[in-house]
Amino acid sequence: SYQVICEKYPSFRERSENVDLVVEISLQPWKVFKPDGVILFSDILTPLSGMNIPFDIVKGKGPVIFDPVHSASQVDEVREFIPEDSVPYVGEALTILRKEVRVDNKAAVLGFVGAPFTLASYVVEGGSSKHFSKIKRLAFSEPKVIFYHLTLSLRHNKLVTM
Question: Which pTM value belongs to this model?
Answer without folding.
Answer: 0.87
